[in-house]
Amino acid sequence: MSAHIAVDVGGTRLRAACYREDSLEPVRIEKTKTQGGDQPALEKLSSLIRDIWPEDEDVEAIGIATPGPTNPFEGVVYTAPNIEGWKDLHITSWFEEHFGVPVLVGNDANLAALGEWQYGAGKGHHHLLYMTVSTGIGTGIIANDQLLLGVRGLAAELGHVTVDPNGPVCGCGQRGHLEALASGPSIAHWVEQEIARGGSSSLPAGRTLTAKEIATAAHAGDELSKQALERAGMYIGMALVDFVHTFNPSILIIGGGVSQSGGLLMDPIRACLKDKVISPHYLDDLTLTHPAFGDDAGLIGALALARSHHKD
Amino acid sequence: MSAHIAVDVGGTRLRAACYREDSLEPVRIEKTKTQGGDQPALEKLSSLIRDIWPEDEDVEAIGIATPGPTNPFEGVVYTAPNIEGWKDLHITSWFEEHFGVPVLVGNDANLAALGEWQYGAGKGHHHLLYMTVSTGIGTGIIANDQLLLGVRGLAAELGHVTVDPNGPVCGCGQRGHLEALASGPSIAHWVEQEIARGGSSSLPAGRTLTAKEIATAAHAGDELSKQALERAGMYIGMALVDFVHTFNPSILIIGGGVSQSGGLLMDPIRACLKDKVISPHYLDDLTLTHPAFGDDAGLIGALALARSHHKD
After folding, report:
1. Domain count of the fold of chain B
2. For the whole prediction, is pTM greater than 0.90?
3. Do B194 and B96 belong together in one domain?
């Protein structure tokens, strides 16, 4: 038997897991915090990989999901938010030297799309869009049975598409991006601002809120929180209409914590798609659904990437 | 020797041309007006094809470029603006029955991208975006050496991506699309409105203007016309930034009559790309250029499509 190792690098958590052929259940999985301690993140990852390395099986390849812009062809992480020192990091060669097996790397949202397509909600589709709405908005595209990567692997950064040129400034520094309008922190920030302006809400004024608090308040009947989720859903819906015109996919997979807010978020998305496509044929075969793998999207994606490696 | 036939269907002009292997110079080419006369467009096209049919060579395949949303997999033109009766038209089976050779069809902007990639400005690139800015804004994408088509061939309708949700209504009925902000008629309409509001210009008030008049006036120093082209360039640039984040291409090919307005249009495009990409790596390998085939883009694209047909 042979095995593959999947590694998920997050801003808060690092995970490594070992999988036998044909299984999505890890034989062994270990995790640790990204921040804190004396070890740099690369060393922590090496420890995790050593911990889960199988005793009786050959490791065919290691797949790594990274949270920032990454060049999968050269195995370079350009930057990784919240991870000190990860700049132009040659991550595949580093791990290949340490472990002596092929190492592949990809952006986590791209790999989540790959995982959903191979093993999850997108099985059997040839044209797929995956979006996770969470602290940020990450996306991955399968076009004609291939992961859309572009010349340096920087394609499918749809969280940074401009939805409203007069909108708020995004974490990246540009204005009006989808992420600046509909990510968890953006939703929370909008509610904070509305409360500061005197808007009525069951939520407290004067402190930082979370999207989760807002979803809870919305479901308890708070009108401002409802409005915040509907507004985010409308922006996501507007962006998805653009992406449907761009990719003509047969499935949209919307995940991430914010997507669990239910109809308040999803109804405006459905309404936008129905009202704003330029031809009803875009909707003929279009499925709108949630991912099969929630928190494990990056890990399963890294596994799909590792398994895509073919021996020379 | 064998030959291929390329057919370009436009709202104003129909063309058919016959090409020998390995040549981009037609052996014979014929054209006629789309509108007027007693014959419907399909009959006119059949006559053109008969006129250019080679006497001494076998025709391997016919490629057809159509101006509206088209399903290349089923050979169906969903609609074609300005051509009466073209709705859900099974165009490939119609011509296959008439001529007894394989017939392939595609949207003209998609095929123009294919033609530029195979024979023109995009040769050797693996990730390409083609845009024509004219009466409308049409686009075609090559992603990873494949034409981006989506599940029904409706992908790459980037003229109908929303650039400003508060912008003017588009010909398609939706609001704020790139085409509604930066196509030739949209540029002209903006100038007409500004003049009607009392804006100073060398152009006359109270009549319909053309983008060509505006380009001429701009080059003669008319400030309002300059502003109109710069404004369109800015919107095209903003959209291109989104598309660069979406596709991470290595080449942007901008064609169409409006793109010949020179620096007034192209400078804001270059400035947007420089100022608004979220990582400088998007620009590392990016070429911004004009197409090799102007008016012949659709025809050369239809030829590329016909030549892509492989005998079973």
Report:
1. 2
2. yes
3. no
